Amino acid sequence: MVRTVYSPEYCLQYLEQYATKEVYVIGLILGQVTESRENVIHLARTPDEKNDASSEASYASEKPEPLRTLLDISETWVADHAKHVTRMLPGGVFVLGIFITSDEDIFEDPNYFSKVKSVLNYTHKALNSNQYMYGNIPNSNEKLILHMSTSTKVLTCKSIEVDVGSKMSIKPVEWKFLPKPQQWQRLDCYYDFDEVYPVLVKNSGISVKHQFQQILESAHKTIELCVMFIDGELKDASEPLEQVFKKRKIIIKRATDNPKSIQVSLFVPYENTFPETVQYSECDGHIHFSGVVASSIFMYPKATIKEATEAVKQDIIRSLASRFTMHCDALIDDNLLPEEKICFNEPPRRVLVPVGTSYFCDYLFPGEAPAEALVSVKELLDLQITEADVVCDIETPADTSEFDALDRDASSEELLATPQEASQFMYITGICFAMFVLIVSIFIHYYDGIVTCLSNFFSKS
Amino acid sequence: MSPRLKISKYVIERLLKTETYETTGCLYGLMYDGTLLVIGFSLEYFENEKKTYSQLLLNLPAEVELCGVVKFCDTTTLDSKPKEILQDVDITDNPLFLIIDKDKEIKAHFLIHEKFEETSYDVFENEDIWKQFLHIRLNTILPLSCEATLFGVKNVLQSKRKKIASGQVSFQINDSTVYLFGIASGVGVTGTSTEANIGDLVDSWNPEQMSKKKKYNINNVEPVSVNLVMKATKDMLSDKLVKTAVKMMTTQRKPAFCISMPLRVDTIAMVHRNTKLSELYSILVEATCRSLKLLESVLIEQLGQEGIGDGAGLRLPETFHYLSPEIGHFITRVVPKGIPDESMEKERIALHEQLDLPLTRPMFRRGNAYIFNSPKLINPHEGIAPQNRGKIATVRGKYLYCHYMQDNFNDDGWGCAYRSMQTIFSWFKYQGYNTLDVPTHKEIQQCLVKIGDKPSSFVGSKQWIGSTEVMFCLDTLIGVQSRIIFANTGSELLTYTPELIHHFQQHGSPIMIGGGVLAHTIIGVEYNEEKNETRYLILDPHYTGADDLQTVLSKGWCGWKTSDFWNKTAHYNLCLPQTKPCV
User: Domain named UFSP1/2/DUB catalytic: which ranges (chain B) (predicted)?
Assistant: First the structure.
């Protein structure tokens, strides 16, 4: 059976528009692969290389503009695009391959075909560079190539295997357009982090990058073990999602419920991954990693619970990895301490951006306005959205007052006292003060009585 | 309305055995179906103002609570201190007050409106406890990481208990799809009907056992295993949902020492079969909290000791469950890993005294712990229907039925004495006298070579051993002295009947007997004075089949034999392993 992918109809117009206007265009195919169906969600043109554009501009007056062809495309540029776009994809959605509009038949001309292969190989490698990004579909190395001829507007789709050397096989793929927009089953959860662990800061300080990497590794281990409950119930892994949804509609119907969203929860079973000993170490600091990762994924309704569970897990890890990468890329100094007593690292937070009938995401650094998301959506997804479309309230920025309060404490020596000493001190002071208030109030209350009593006493004596 | 009262046979027997007079005891029990069932008791000495009963509660299965007071006297008056105990009774509005007078008559009273009202009670048969009640064993590992100080440990464990008590956990039953949730989740139970009770659920997994008409006794308690899972996501419908994005705060402070370890939670709850799954959640939360408190106290105790104050010598807490026939309910203890039993005698003596147990033999050492899921048969002779024909003395405590072909080792035709010795060895292990594993044939042979009894070619051979070799090995490996009896003929054995009876009463260990080409294990003797007949309870190591109790009993591999069993003309040597009194 020929592999079939389903695409929304606007993708056709999208391709035709570029096939008409431009000599050639390359871009990414974004979508979801499930056992029951493969769905393309969006096509995103790879932006022009900026450096080239500026340097060419300066020479433009002297030299005639070089004839740009597909063969001039930089593989690393496309791979980089794929890496950046992956950060914006919810779990279960991947870069499935590339699309090209050009005059040449890229499948027949060996020069062009080897270029395409090379682009896909580069992309595959780049996406594999960070396992926590889930850049490539796990256990699959097939990539799609969709081609539209600029002259005939004929569409051809094929799949090739990457990363297999010379034995690369090419298979035809049937590309179908759906007249109606695809319906998605949305699953939401808030994964909660609240971990404190001791560290040794002394002398060398701590690398933020290294810490984040460790957090990521341990979060990955934990999340992989998690059991997922849908609407508070454990479902059969092979059951299709829509089945759950149908049943649910009959049982509960709350007015506030968004009919398209199902709430899921994750529970961690602790298994014995620890050494059977007491580990003993010196430390002079603590790392507190806390907050939530808001996760919203969109699944084809006939996808199974198992597929949905994997997508949720990928989404949380991918989102965590995206934030950490973006945060570390923006860091001037990776070393956390030892100058300051308290150091605060706030990676960018997640916002949702509409793409077709589902949502992708973007990340906003502290202080950035939602409008910033419009820029990356335009550049990386080739989509025009308005500020109002950005869903900014799935996560809130860290409350910096919490940090300020701690910072003030840190400046005094109080913080270095153990919490026990501090609390005892507070306790004793509190009691003393309370006693004082009590005595004064008794005195005031019974003032007349005490005075008469005292005067009686003295007069008697 | 005051509850109906039932008192377990175990408790009645223990109360009647108590010899102290004018002392006070605490009663422990559980409520089911409007009935208060008393299943345990302890003595209370009111020393140092410590409420030892509240400590002991942590060692009992969850659901078992303090339910009243027992006095060994003739009047219904109570001093102030026992009254304080009654005030601590939460399980019922009508605390129980038992009186055992000089004639050993038990009278029960409920405290109703500040007055004691005498009430009748039923005796709850021991078998019914194992039939009607299920034991739920929760196992999980919680990672613990904190500063190596008393405060650090207390603080982190308190926050763990809080988290568990606040509905942030779910319990998975028996690796199935059945999960229990807290009330806050609005779900309660998933994977089965909310109305289901635990007994039916367990039966639905083992339909075969039901049809076999399983016999329930203290040796085949099979707990329902439960696993704990911790909620990692937030409740989206909660009004108090804080959705602050992830952030990292690094704080520098005074240098200190930190410890991190896997904290193994292993805890038991005792519930009636009719307990609804929806009621089980809070019981399991309580069980987990009891375990965490026990674990905490072991860590705290160590941190308080000199030398390991900074945590460097801290040992992992290890949990053991005990179920001795003298007590009749589980007692859970947590001890630091690797500390020898001998150096923790003081605590054990205190526990023996509190539970009014003899100080002559160990009951709470590591080896005494209950054996869950043993691949070999334990005490097969207890499956034989009792036939009272005379004075009987049998082995006391648990042993393994060791016989030919076990452990994937073919010793058919030569290994019977080795197997008999393994049975004896297992008995010493399970009575807590040592913690060594039962030795293999090779280890037994190596031991005999080491002491010079045999040449080095003996190791790996198929040579037989006799009762003297068994004696040597027991002495060398675990320091057990044995008495050897020689009988010139099978009939001469009969003259030793009183000595055998005395052995089982005094020491209670299995006896190895060798004669002719055969070795057997004697695990009991019966003497009928009228007929002057002796019968022997024999455990036959020559059995080569599977460890199936029915086969072993019906085919007589474990059973009573008359004196004809012995060869009239053969010589017999018996090895009677001796015990020393200790706790």
Answer: 391-575
